[in-house]
Write a structure and sequence with these properties.
- The chain has about 400 residues and is mostly helical.
- Helices cover about 85% and strands about 0% of the residues.
- Helix 1 runs antiparallel to helix 5.
- The N and C termini lie far apart (about 140 Å).
């Protein structure tokens, strides 16, 4: 016999209970779903309002940030322009120093050339006179001026290099601020209708790009700008300190150089006048010596002729005296004739001896005068060469020295 209860799993009571439970569970889920749906609608409304308000807040903050960035960018640009102007002005002072240094080098070369010219002086003119003294003092002065100008030029060049480096740094900051400004202006003008993301793709899927840059606070950001501005001002102040210093150095060196140059010129003019006077005096002396040489030569020839003329008379007187003495056999008698003959011989001998002495004296005088003439000629030649060196070579060279207050 077939038993149907073997194939039944549950009874009717369990069946009813199970159906009732499933219906109750479905009702609960539906009720919860309705609650969730209502809350979601409320949340969407709230989120739309929050998003709209947040967007307005962000736009307002971006606007303030743009104004702030634009302000600091303007401050940086003002400092940049001021620093650029100071660089150009300091470069102008640097060029003035270079021109002054070149003029100083040219003047020094001319002075050294004059000293070299004066090394060719001869004889007594090789003395340490006033032009020589002033030339050496000028060399010492110009050497000191060159040292001072080179030192100042190095300091100004170093400061301008610092200014140029600071200018590049400010330019870099301004460029950064310009990029930030452009980005924030673009961001402030965007909204959910003007900018869309690719569906399913987020532009900010990773924060690695943000983590790569070092984030700073707003105070730190502003502090860095202030530090850059302060540093730029310090560079400008340091540059401006050079302006009166360089100006005073250039004026003082030009004034000292001009004064010493005038002393050199004046010493040469006085020396030339003195040399001209000495040369004229020597020329007068040599003219007188030449005249005296002519007179002595004339007297020398007269004495020579007179000596030749007196010798026959002396020989004749000796011969007559010898004849008179030979005529006396017993001895020489100091008669009147003997006395007259001896007197004649003595007188002629004295006359010839005097003429000979005068002749010799005239000869010695002529030699001395001719020696004086040679010495005077050499001295005149020396003075002529000295005048050529001082007046033609040195003064013409010194005329090419132009001292200008650049």
């Amino acid at each position: 016999m077939y038993n149907s209860q073997k194939h039944l799993r549950t009874d009717e009571k369990i069946w009813r209970s199970t159906n009732r439970c499933k219906c109750e569970k479905a009702d609960r889920n539906c009720s919860y779903a309705q609650t969730v749906s209502g809350k979601s609608k409320v949340a969407c409304v709230d989120k739309d309002e929050t998003t709209s308000q947040s967007e307005q807040d962000v736009r307002h903050s971006l606007g303030l940030r743009v104004q702030e960035i634009d302000f600091w960018k303007s401050e940086l640009e003002v400092e940049f322009e001021a620093l650029d102007a100071d660089i150009n002005k300091l470069e102008h002072y640097r060029n003035r120093l270079k021109l002054t240094l070149n003029d100083c080098s040219h003047s020094l070369s001319v002075i050294e050339q004059c000293l070299q010219f004066r090394e060719n002086r001869e004889g007594l003119d090789q003395i340490f006179d006033e032009p020589q003294k002033q030339l050496q003092q000028n060399v010492e002065l110009l050497a000191e001026i060159k040292l001072l100008l080179r030192k100042m030029l190095e300091e100004v060049s170093a400061q301008n290099r610092k200014n140029s480096s600071m200018k590049l740094y400010l330019q870099h900051i301004i460029d950064d601020k310009q990029r930030y400004l452009e980005g924030d202006i673009l961001a402030s003008n965007l909204n959910h209708t003007s900018y869309s993301l690719t569906p399913g793709v987020s532009c900010f899927s990773s924060q690695s790009s943000l983590l790569k840059c070092q984030l700073v606070t707003e105070c730190e950001w502003e502090s860095r700008i202030l530090q850059a501005l302060e540093k730029g001002k310090k560079h400008r102040q340091k540059s401006q300190e050079f302006h009166p210093l360089v100006d005073s150095i250039i004026k003082k060196t030009a004034r000292d150089s001009q004064l010493q140059h005038k002393r050199v010129i004046l010493s040469f003019q006085n020396r030339i006048m003195e040399t001209v006077k000495a040369k004229k005096l020597l020329e007068m002396c040599i003219t007188k010596v030449i005249e005296e040489i002519g007179e002595i030569r004339h007297a020398f020839s007269i004495l020579e002729e007179e000596e030749k003329a007196k010798k026959p008379y002396l020989n004749l007187a000796h011969y007559k005296l010898e004849l008179h003495q030979q005529s006396q056999n017993l001895g020489i008698c100091m008669d009147k004739v003997q006395l007259e003959l001896e007197k004649e011989v003595s007188t002629l001998q004295q006359a010839v001896q005097n003429i000979h002495m005068k002749h010799q004296e005239a000869k010695n005088t002529l030699q001395r005068l001719e020696g004086n003439k040679v010495e005077l000629e050499n001295d005149i030649a020396t003075k002529t060469k000295s005048l050529y060196i001082d007046e033609i070579q040195c003064l013409r060279a010194l005329a090419n020295v132009v001292i200008v207050d650049h």
